[in-house]
TrEMBL record, chain A:
InterPro entries the record matches: 4Fe4S_Fe-S-bd (IPR017896), 4Fe4S_Fe_S_CS (IPR017900), FTHF_cligase-like_sf (IPR024185), Helical_ferredxn (IPR009051), LUD_dom (IPR003741), LutB/LldF (IPR004452), LutB_C (IPR024569), NagB/RpiA_transferase-like (IPR037171)
Segments forming domain 4Fe-4S ferredoxin-type: 294-324
Pfam families: Fer4_8, LUD_dom, LutB_C
Keywords on record: 4Fe-4S, Electron transport, Iron, Iron-sulfur, Metal-binding, Repeat, Transport
Protein name (database record): Lactate utilization protein
Taxonomy, superkingdom: Bacteria
Automatic annotation (TrEMBL), chain B:
PANTHER family, per the entry: LACTATE UTILIZATION PROTEIN A (PTHR30296:SF0), UNCHARACTERIZED PROTEIN YKGE (PTHR30296)
Origin organism lineage: Bacteria, Pseudomonadati, Bacteroidota, Sphingobacteriia, Sphingobacteriales
Domain Cysteine-rich, residue spans: 3-84, 127-221
Top-level taxon of origin: Bacteria
Extent of the signal sequence: none
InterPro entries (alphabetical): Cys_rich_dom
Protein name: (Fe-S)-binding protein
Automatic annotation (TrEMBL), chain C:
Organism: Pedobacter segetis
Record protein name field: LUD domain-containing protein
Pfam families: LUD_dom
Domain LUD: 95-194
Length: 456, 246, 194
């Protein structure tokens, strides 16, 4: 039933312990920067609360806000498209390009287009897409998916990137200096910006009140692409809406600080109208979002502003790498979003967590991530996405724990073999022992001691 | 004050001394402690695996065992949090609710209910505190590093009453140890690596003992320490507070 | 049913009961602080240089020292810089590709994050602050606000077609988290406080 799972992928990742340590330290460093930045803002927790409530409100009135946004955007000369799924989204983008005879496009970061596998779709139809975010360009050259939503190539060491650039961009062999590599990408992409007639961007926020969209980058790649192209296509999930322009203050204060610890991204660009004589298209995409909206336990995952703080803090993510999640969005938030799209494929992800709760407490919009992980587990089991052996052993455990007599019988056996200790019940080969000793076996259980010493 | 002692299954089976220390501590502070002998488990191992719907028998037994006490106390944050969040019994809803409200993890019972301000205990060792996630983030026993909020720590307040103890500072104050219930075997590779990293943080700072409020985390860390043949040991906070000598 | 109706219907059906929109005016309350000092500290922390000057002539003096203004292409929308810069009067903004130094005015700046706000009331070509190798912003000292909340109060309901907050030179840390200034946009930002 399950083809690949997080545990197996993580096992492979953990074969190289030095790399795990490096990955963990790099991301922990970002978590620390986030801590430092958030602690410089006395209103931090009030901001999180405000952001959370604004998003809750928006989701509860999304229907009206979408219409309001459309109305205002259209009045500003923006063309609006609606896509119910990835396929339709890709078709819309393709048609826009095909109509103008455009065969080359530059694209800045958009997790939505990753979710829709837009690049493949367009490439199959003869359209070349170049990702302009440095990290995205690197994974594109390596023919890999991003492993992190903000830092797409965080899993790659600079030597690997150096080798990749040597092969594709002609940098000197063996040079792994980030300064040199970034400069090479700058030269290479500058030409791309200057020659592309179409530019696609993601959307961080869309304001219902004004019909404008906001795109945040550090590199300036979204703006350079768009301002030099004839047609700007912006793709967004329908959950990116916020009610008012003034609410941007709350989200922009939180976003970059949560993501990287910067006070704000270098560029926060507001697009309200197309450039004179040019086109601006916005594609509003559902692709499972309305379904998630209809799941009361999981709907508030749609509040996510894709800051990635939950990735950086997650002790499991840091030690298993983004690719182990085998889904477009990895990390804690990916583990609660992905099962909505395909339960069978992502049934393992809600289990890839200790439920430590760190994610929910760094989340700038206060998504109860770890509680949703717990709830997804219940749903997945009920829907039958768990292997039969495990289900059987759980039934056995349920019976044992419901009956003091059975429990006391099992306990004796457990102490000598650990076999029925609840936390490892379903395992015959006892992976506990692989890297850990068993607890020493005491002479008697507490129950027995109590019987002997305290019952008169 | 009538207090029922809830001893989580693995503590009962593997760490009886922790339960004994808990019992003795409560008695020292004048509690009338009973140990309902038909208790089994809080049901968390099933629930966290996605089988909460199978826990009704376990819940029923829990309510049956623990109704009618002023308080229920357990030396484990994780089990207590689970009862608080998930215990329900359709036949005895009010009893289940009362239990959820009156169940305490040992440390917070000592600080919040008994308001302990003095202890006869000395522990002349370097000790590292492991913040178990369910105790810290779930039961709010101490402030987590994620929030921009004033620091506090109930376990530390109690350890401050112990003579001669020397607490060490960690690089990562409250990172998860990777136990995670069935996670510890289902995700063995990551779980063990998390445990190793946690242990190394303590060892690097010369801890002779790692203490904490949750025996499950400590059992996991102990498994790693013993595999490494480390000199560092684990000890449940109840044993330190109860005046155990090393 | 077309996709638009499909999606809107599904949203309507699945969205929860209406929840209240919070009041965020309390976030406008901030402690009194030296805004110029805070702005300077923050923006220098993210890789820009700040100069306090009294006259435009001082700025020209600075720039002449740092750049070979005679030899490289310098563009500005401000006539105060006619001595070293030319306005852009071309038809195609691709012609800006070789600009070395761009000198631009700003509407206001934000102390807490070092960002300056510019919109197309100031200049029509959106690409101006993005395309040069080096960027210069002129910020009026009195126009520094404490936080983003104050910033959006100033922007209000203004009808721009494009506007952006810019905080520092373009940058990336995508390669092993090593910070490199000058990703695709300007390699440096100089802010002159007047
Ligand atoms: S779930 Fe929260 S913390 Fe994670 S990416 Fe989304 S907004 Fe950020």
């Amino acid at each position: 039933m399950k083809t690949i799972d997080h545990a197996a992928n993580s096992k492979v990742f953990n074969q190289d312990e030095d790399r795990v340590d490096w990955h963990d330290e790099t991301l922990w460093f970002i978590r620390q920067k986030r801590d430092k930045a958030s602690k410089q803002i006395p209103q931090w927790e009030a901001l999180r609360e405000a952001a959370s409530q604004i998003k809750n409100h928006t989701l509860s009135n999304l229907h009206n806000y979408l219409e309001e946004f459309e109305l205002n955007a259209k009045a500003n000369g923006i063309q609006i498209h609606w896509a119910k799924d990835a396929q339709e989204h890709n078709e819309i983008v393709y048609d826009l390009l095909a109509k103008q005879g455009i065969s080359k496009m530059v694209k800045s970061k958009s997790m939505l287009t990753e979710e829709c596998h837009l690049n493949h779709y367009l490439e199959d139809r003869g359209i070349e897409v170049i990702d302009s975010d440095l990290g995205e360009r690197i994974v594109q050259l390596a023919k890999e998916p991003p492993s992190h939503i903000v830092l797409p190539c965080i899993h790659k060491k600079k030597e690997e990137i150096g080798a990749l650039f040597h092969e594709h961009l002609g940098t000197p062999e063996g040079n792994a200096d980030p300064q040199v590599l970034t400069e090479a990408a700058r030269q290479h992409l500058r030409d791309v910006f200057l020659t592309r007639r179409a530019a696609l961007t993601g959307v961080n926020f869309a304001v219902a009140e004004t019909g404008e969209i906001v795109v945040c980058t550090n590199e300036g790649n979204a703006d350079l692409g768009v301002h030099l192209a004839d047609i700007h296509i912006a793709c967004m999930g329908i959950e990116k809406i916020i009610p008012k322009r003034g609410h941007l203050s709350v989200f922009l204060r939180l976003l970059a600080r949560s993501a990287t610890g910067q006070p704000v991204t270098t560029y926060s660009s507001h697009f309200a109208k197309p450039r004179k004589g040019k086109e601006l298209h916005i594609v509003l995409v559902d692709n499972g979002r309305t379904k998630q909206l209809g799941r009361p336990d999981f709907r508030n995952s749609l509040k996510c502003i894709r800051c990635s703080a939950c990735f950086n803090t997650c002790p499991v993510y840091r030690r298993s790498g983004g690719h182990s999640y085998h889904s477009v969005i990895a990390g804690p938030i990916g583990s609660i979003l992905s099962p909505n799209l395909d339960m069978a494929k992502h049934a393992d992800l809600p289990f890839a967590s200790t439920l430590c709760g760190s994610c929910s407490n760094v989340c700038p919009v206060k998504i109860d991530i770890h509680e949703q992980l717990y709830k997804w587990r219940q749903v997945l089991v009920k829907e039958g996405y768990v292997d039969a052996k495990k289900a059987l052993s759980m039934q056995l455990m349920a019976k044992t724990l419901a009956s003091p007599t059975l429990y006391h019988l099992a306990g004796k056996a457990a102490r000598t073999t650990l076999k029925y200790a609840p936390f490892i019940a379903q395992n015959r080969f006892n992976p506990w022992y692989h890297q850990r000793e068993m607890p020493a076996v005491p002479k008697s259980s507490f129950g027995e001691w109590y019987q002997k010493n305290r019952t008169k | 004050m009538k207090v029922a002692l809830f001893v989580p299954c693995y503590v009962d089976q593997f760490y009886p001394n922790v339960a004994i220390a808990t019992l003795e501590l409560l008695e020292k502070f004048g509690c009338e402690v009973s140990y309902p002998k038909n208790q089994t488990c809080c049901g968390q191992p099933m629930s966290n695996s996605g089988f909460e719907h199978l826990t009704s028998g376990c819940n029923k037994n829990f309510v049956e065992s623990f109704k009618g006490f002023d308080y229920i106390v357990a030396p484990s944050g994780s089990c207590v949090l689970h009862i608080k969040e998930h215990l329900h019994d359709e036949e005895h809803p009010s009893e289940a609710e009362k239990i959820s409200k009156t169940i305490y993890e040992l440390v917070s019972f000592l600080t919040d209910v008994l308001k302990v301000e003095h202890l006869e205990a000395s522990f002349p060792h370097k000790v590292g505190m492991h913040q178990s996630c369910h105790g810290q983030r779930g039961l709010k026993l101490s402030q987590m590093t994620e929030l921009n909020a004033p620091p506090f720590s109930k376990p530390q307040d109690l350890l401050n009453l112990v003579k001669d103890i020397e607490m060490i500072e960690l690089d990562r104050k409250d990172e998860c140890c990777g136990f995670g219930g069935t996670f510890c075997v289902a995700e063995e590779a990551v779980s063990a690596k998390m445990g190793v990293d946690r242990v190394n943080d303590h060892v690097r700072h010369h801890a002779e003992y790692i203490t904490g409020i949750d025996m499950s985390c400590l059992m996991h860390l102990e498994g790693i320490l013993r595999r490494q043949k480390s000199k560092t040991k684990i000890i449940h906070i109840a044993e330190i507070l109860n005046g155990r000598k090393a | 049913m077309n996709s638009r109706a499909c999606i809107l219907n599904a949203v309507k059906e699945n969205q929860p009961e209406l929840l209240a929109l919070p009041d965020i005016t309390h976030l406008l309350e901030v402690e009194n602080q030296d805004l110029v000092a805070e702005f300077t500290r923050v923006i220098e922390g993210i890789g820009a240089k700040v100069f306090q000057v009294n006259k435009y002539q001082e700025i020209i003096h600075h720039l002449k020292a740092d750049f070979e203004t005679e030899k490289v292409r310098v563009v500005s929308t401000l006539k105060e810089f006619d001595e070293i810069a030319k306005p852009f009067s071309g038809l195609d903004n691709h012609e800006l590709a070789d600009v070395e130094l761009m000198i631009l005015p700003t509407h206001f700046a934000v102390a807490e994050n070092g960002a300056s706000w510019v919109d197309d009331e100031l200049f029509k070509e959106r690409v101006l602050p993005f395309i040069p190798q080096h960027l210069v912003f002129i910020v009026e000292k009195e126009k520094i606000v404490p936080t983003m909340h104050h910033a959006y109060q100033l922007i209000g309901k203004k009808k721009y077609s494009y506007g952006t907050f810019i905080a520092g030179p373009s940058k990336t840390a995508d390669i092993e988290q090593s910070l490199v200034l000058g990703a695709h946009g300007p390699r440096s930002l100089r802010v002159f406080l007047v």
